[in-house]
Amino acid sequence: MAALEDGDMNTFGPELPAMFDGMKLAAVATVLYVIVRCLNLKSTTAPPGIIYQDTPLSRYLFKTCPMLTKEYIPPLLWGKSGHLQTALYGKMGRVNTPTPFGVRKFLPMQDGATATFDLFEPIGEHSTGDDITMVICPGIGNHSEQNYIRTFVDHSQRQGYRCAVLNHLGALPNMELTSPRMFTYGCTWEYAAMVAYIKQAFPQTLLVVVGFSLGGNIVCKFLGEHTSNQDRVLCCVSVCQGYSALRAQETFLQWDQCRRLYNFVLADKMKKLILSHRSSLLSMKSSNIGDADLNRLYSATSLMQIDDSIMRKFHDYSSLKEYYEKESCVHYIHNVTVPLLLVNSSDDPLIHQSLLAIPRTLAEKMPNVIFALTQHGGHLGFFEGAVLFPQPLTWMDKVIVEYTNAICHWEKDWPSCQRSSQQHMNSYLQSTGVTLNG
């Protein structure tokens, strides 16, 4: 029997190394396949998809803002993955981040809250010679000290823009609350106070409205709430927002694109931010937040649970549905008549594809709206680079300033075309019966 076994071993012995080599090759091939799929390496680069109406303004913009029609090229090895773009933005913000010098302003609100924003003067003169201020609203829980904000501000300053950056209420470290509330998904009070301050302090300045992610929702809602909010506003740019919190809440519980995991991570961040103000929220007599609410907060694993137990109560919403309905810009954005650029990325893991029907439909119907959808970029990533290392400035930083420069020159140099574009907008409003909330 032993002889047979030895014979069998002698028979199959030479084949065993070959079998192991084949298994190793198969394992390597599998790993490479997974890497190629995860990094999306087979995806080709392309210009943004643009939805717009043919107007004098849009034709002018495509001539003077080539980045809207030029191929966006992310870093070759990892830039085609929306997850890595998003993760790198979240971890690092930007590379070689500058440190622009600004002055912090404090604004007392009617309910006792203290809004703050940082003001950065321009470095040099704007190409039009005009005084122009960018009023910027950052993403969820962000402020002027975030790396991506500092990079964008520095770039804008060097192009001749003054920048005012809102610090979301409760987001600044070591800044105590003076009223029992924090920023919410769509509260425009602090942003409106910052804009009013800029208009009063700089009577000659024109405004460019910029919002990132949650900030995009806030600025679009602000402009659409009252027509007077659009006075002296040249244009608005919104990047990577979701437009409707009510529609987004269902998609944020799904596992495709790991959205449920991102929900958990963002919820954990919000939980820590709220708990850092626990004593302030509990100690004030007018607070709607109690120990029971904070106890529910400890066990929350999603933004929806946090919004239901804490955030909606800052403004006395009776239900989560009412909170999401009233604070989403989707009900106000159609009232915006100034040039409006909406930017999203197809591989943004936080924004479900179904939400992009909102800006797409808006751009199809309103002549002042352009919707730019990139193939890559993730959530607020949009890194550019050759192979591995990204450039300090992102596609997002550059396209916002380039679009804004084009609008500024349009307003200054093309008054007849401007009137033609406004007539086109007025005709649209009359034909559709759209009324503006005054």
TrEMBL record:
The keyword Transmembrane applies. GO terms for cellular component: sperm flagellum; sperm plasma membrane. Pfam families: Abhydrolase_1. The active site is at S213, D348, H379. Its EC number is 3.1.1.23, 3.1.1.6, 3.1.1.79. Progesterone-dependent acylglycerol lipase that catalyzes hydrolysis of endocannabinoid arachidonoylglycerol (AG) from cell membrane. Acts as a progesterone receptor: progesterone-binding activates the acylglycerol lipase activity, mediating degradation of 1-arachidonoylglycerol (1AG) and 2-arachidonoylglycerol (2AG) to glycerol and arachidonic acid (AA). Also displays an ester hydrolase activity against acetyl ester, butanoate ester and hexadecanoate ester. Belongs to the AB hydrolase superfamily. AB hydrolase 4 family. This is Monoacylglycerol lipase ABHD2. It comes from Dicentrarchus labrax. The lineage of its organism: Eukaryota, Metazoa, Chordata, Craniata, Vertebrata. The gene is ABHD2.
